[in-house]
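Open question from group meeting: does this chain pack into something compact, or does most of it stay loose? Before anyone orders reagents, we agreed to write out a predicted structure and look at it together. Recording both the input and the output here so the notebook holds the full record.
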Amino acid sequence: MAASGAAVLHRAVRANLTARALALVVVVLVLVISYATSLRIYFAQAHEIATTKAEIAQSQASIADLQSQITRWNDPAYVSAQARERLGWLVPGETGYTVVGADGKPLGGGLTLDSTPTDDPGQPQAMWWDRMWGSVKAADKPAVKKADPGKRAPVTPDSKPR
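Structure tokens returned:
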């Protein structure tokens, strides 16, 4: 009977150990799940912070570039250089030259003007006030609405064709 008492005691200890192990596994599993959620949120926030810092750095670089452009445009020498390059302007007393190629078009950069008329050459261009008055006249005459097929009288054997 001593052997069977020891076996019962061994089973009770083993069952108690299994219950403890199961409880420990459940506690560890709950901790892992709660920490995993917290870690996921932490990494998402860290990514958002890094993205925001990159946007801030890009905005600061853009601001620095715009401030340097403002500084350049406040310099009269830069403004005159841009007027010469872009618009072909000259300082009073200078003589300007344009090099023309064999095809009759100017060589190099600079401003080119398109003198082709956009409207019919035989028709005089309308002045802005004429165009504006035309829009007022058009607003007074709304477009005619088409009849709604759903509002027609139903077709019956008595109805006559139109």
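Observations to bring back to the group:
The longest helix spans residues 2-73.
The mean pLDDT is 79.
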